[in-house]
Amino acid sequence: MTEPTPLDKAEAAVTEASVNTAAVQIAMAAVELAKLATTQQQPVPAACSHQAKHGRSAGEWLGIACAVCVAGIGLAFASIAIAIGATCATACLLVLRSMWRDFTKNR
Hints:
Blueprint: H1 6-41, H2 58-105
């Protein structure tokens, strides 16, 4: 058998290098595909689709004002009722105390 010439050795090295280069290219392509697949799994919002609510309208403010007025009037009537009840209770206790003193004096 004859020994390969330097030219044959060089051709074999080039062929092996081209095969290795193709394998490296395939591996790099696989890595890029994996990166692309992971980034595509997370959806990217296209644009903001909600509407920001602006201030209240005049009708809403009028309704709030009416509700506050009605609640204030109700609170005023409740306070008056409590005051009348406290006055009646005080008068009743004073009358009962006077009656008790009269009753215990005459014994």
